[in-house]
Design brief:
heterodimer, B: mainly alpha, MetI-like fold, two-stranded antiparallel ribbon, 2 strands
């Protein structure tokens, strides 16, 4: 009797445990997820918080603890949190770090969960390419993060400064895109000197770090191709196209004097270039489209235009963070629901309207849907002429690499040697290629 | 009837009990991580996959790593300039602050204020001050008819920019130490010197500096150790650039540990740093002289 009683108690307890292991979502159990993004600007953090508030209203039994880290420290912080077993459930991840995290088993494979919420064809070309990553040790492709948006560089300008100088606004139509020489002449007309001092520069931000957009887009547009097709080898860094592009960029500052010293924009501060445009220190700014959120709130009459075309025209690149889930999460289903919400059009449209993101969904580029995101108070005139910059963009080269941080470090060091220490390209480019190749094969 | 002495009877028990939190903290947060990092320095570890024992390969790699050699030389350059300046300037300031005059406390506080401020905040302000186009430093230089350099994009001036910021921040602390040392010197020595008609220079060289030798030794050791560990201002002001010209050992250790997935190599670099500081401290201790007086 005693043994039977004991068995009965065990069965009752076991069934209670099993019952509580049902999807807690459905059972209505209160869960807390942690979501981590970077705080590139207070406006961006507010946009994310608004989306999280809407998620909480939709799923009242799931609360989301929102943490941020500075943009430059975000991935380092993620790595240490993962090592300590305290990583957030859901987080922003730059696609250039994706393969490093996947290699170390730190991202949840979302391939099956993805099909529950999305259709791959709904996404623009660059997003599809970015999201499908070779599974380590296999020949198949998997999905380890969902593309949240796309960002690509545009040429912002201050209309008042153009009017004052009597210079025509730069074009937004593809067939009217300026050549490089036309762009330089425009920048020269907009550069104002008082004695020895330049009080207004024609342009800025062409020497932006490789972790962002501008140099990469110009290199690709000028016909440079740094890596082989599967990004396992650096093959074309030392090429005439690379030399020509880097020389053109440097000449803006050194030869023509139309661009300021890049420390004017702050070395580690992603949004301080906008201050140069706001304060009239520069007339044009080549910068990622994310800056529109901040620039649209300033008092300047803002314009946006196509960047100058190079040898192959304008070959746009577009990339932005993905939402990924930690492989150690205790709540994979709920985390995926959070990712699905954050990447949904419901959450995205208010952020598209703010100018921070361009959509990664093809449908948003159809004319019938423009009114959903195109707020005329935010988007300058002619923006819709340039939608191909995002819709037809390719991912950045660096989005396909391993050992991304070390490669960026080498690239920064070598390009700074060229730009500021005036080391010749004959010395810099072969050495950069050799160092990057070593890192691509490093375990 | 004899009372049995329990453990609570002994003073040593109570002493150990009160020391226990501190000792435990030291063991868990200092000794254990130090020992762990020594072990890590012989491994290859990327913070997530299994650790791999590789013996002294990390230490061997340091000497073949051109970046490690460069940052080491940058660190020595930083120390060679900042340490002497962080002794001479604070000493002179301490002598000036050791006057009995109205308002002297204001100046003592003013010089000490940077010490209690955040280095990151200070570095962000100085970064803008160093701006070639719009910065305050080049503006003041232009008033004097000097064309200021490209502080942060020049291999020549990037490290001096870091040095100036570091010296500005730490002057107050060393000045305070010297001031305390000065105030512990008996006034009778100076009275005797006055009676003998000794001039200010002889007084400084033959009295003040020798009598401050203990304080000076302490300041030198602390300043050298903290100079080896310079980091915040490098990350914020220059990011180690341009082209690694202002990158230092601790910055490179941080990059390897938290950005490059190379915790083992970073640990080896950390132990190299420890060895350098230890050797330098031994050398300083060997050559220091203490003035003894009745």
């Amino acid at each position: 009797m005693r043994a039977e009683k004991r068995l009965l108690i065990i069965l009752i307890v076991a069934s209670m445990i099993l019952a509580t292991n049902v999807l807690s979502f459905a059972a209505g159990e209160k869960i807390t997820l942690t979501f981590m993004s970077w705080e590139a600007s207070p406006l961006e953090a507010q946009s994310i918080q608004n989306a999280l508030n809407a998620f909480a209203a939709k799923y009242p039994n799931v609360s989301v603890n929102y943490v941020t880290a500075p943009w430059s420290e975000h991935h380092a912080k993620l790595r240490t949190m993962m090592a300590g077993g305290t990583a957030p459930d859901v987080f922003y991840l730059n696609p250039d770090y994706q393969r490093d995290f996947i290699k170390r088993g730190q991202l949840l494979d979302l391939t099956n969960l993805f099909k529950k919420y999305y259709k791959l064809d709904d996404f623009i070309k660059s997003s599809q390419q970015k999201m499908q990553v070779k599974v380590p040790g296999k020949q198949t492709y998997g999905i380890f993060g969902v593309d949240i948006c796309v960002v690509g560089p545009v040429l912002y300008y201050n209309k008042d400064l153009f009017d004052k100088a009597g210079v025509a606004y730069p074009p937004t139509e593809k067939e009217k895109a300026m050549s490089w020489d036309e762009f330089v002449r425009m920048a020269q007309k907009l550069t104002i000197k008082e004695g020895d001092k330049t009080v207004q520069y024609g342009t800025s931000n062409f020497e932006e770090p490789m972790t962002l957009y501008t140099q990469l887009e110009l290199l690709g547009s000028n016909g440079a191709k740094w890596f082989n097709d599967d990004f396992t080898q650096a093959v074309g860094i030392d090429s005439p196209a690379t030399r020509d592009t880097l020389q053109k960029i440097k000449d803006l500052r050194v030869k023509y004097g139309v661009a300021p010293d890049p420390t004017a924009i702050g070395l580690q501060q992603q949004h301080s270039p906008t201050q140069l445009l706001e304060t009239g220190k520069v007339a044009t700014l080549f910068l990622g489209s994310y800056a529109l959120q901040e620039l649209s709130k300033t008092s300047i009459r803002l314009g946006a235009a196509l960047p100058p075309k190079m040898k192959n025209g304008i070959v746009p690149i577009g990339s932005a963070n993905i939402d990924a889930i930690w492989s150690g999460t205790k709540h994979p289903e709920e985390s995926m629901a959070l990712v699905a919400y954050l990447t949904s059009l419901d959450a995205g449209i208010p952020i598209y309207r703010s100018g921070l993101w361009m959509s990664s969904r093809s449908s948003m580029y159809e004319k019938a849907n423009w009114t959903k995101w195109n707020d005329p108070k935010v988007y300058p005139e002619g923006w819709t002429n340039m939608l191909w910059l995002w819709k037809d963009a390719s991912p950045r080269w660096f989005d396909n690499l391993v050992n991304a941080d070390q490669i960026y470090d080498v690239t920064t060091e070598e390009l700074q040697a060229y730009y500021y220490l005036n080391k010749p390209l004959d010395e810099v480019l072969p050495r950069m290629q050799a160092r990057i190749n070593m890192l691509l094969t490093q375990d | 009837m004899l009372r049995t002495k329990t453990i609570f009877y002994y003073d040593s028990f109570w002493a150990l009990l009160f020391l226990l939190p501190s000792v435990l903290g030291f063991l868990i947060f200092v000794l254990f991580p130090i020992a762990a990092s020594l072990g890590l320095s012989f491994t290859k570890w990327d913070l997530s996959t299994k650790m791999q024992w590789i013996g002294i390969k990390n230490f061997h790699e340091i000497f073949a790593d051109r970046v490690a050699v460069k940052v080491f030389l940058n660190t020595l350059y930083f120390i060679a300039i900042t340490v002497p300046l962080l002794i001479i300037i604070p000493l002179l300031l301490a002598i000036a602050m050791n006057q009995k005059m109205r308002g002297i406390r204001f100046f003592r506080a003013a010089y000490f204020l940077p010490v209690v401020s955040s280095m990151v905040a200070i570095s962000m302000v100085w970064q803008w001050m160093y701006n070639k186009e719009f910065g305050l430093i080049n503006y003041f230089l232009s008033v004097l008819g000097i064309s200021g350099p490209n502080w942060l994009t020049s291999a020549t001036w990037a490290m001096p920019a870091i040095m100036i910021t570091s010296i500005w921040k730490n002057i107050g602390f060393n000045m305070l130490l010297f001031l305390a040392g000065l105030q512990s010197i008996p006034a009778s020595f100076y009275e005797a010197a006055d009676l003998d008609g000794v001039n200010w220079y002889r007084r400084l060289m033959s009295l003040t500096i020798p009598l401050l030798s203990t304080t000076t030794f302490f300041v030198v050791v602390m300043t050298v150790i903290s100079s080896f560990q310079v980091f915040d201002q490098v990350v914020v002001i220059t990011g180690g650039g341009p082209s690694r010209s202002s990158s230092v050992l601790v910055h490179y250790i941080y990059q390897n540990a938290f950005l490059f997935y190379r915790m083992g190599y970073a640990s080896a670099l950390g132990w190299l740093l420890f060895a350098l500081i230890f050797i330098l401290s031994l050398v300083q201790s060997r050559f220091s002289r203490t003035v003894e007086f009745d």
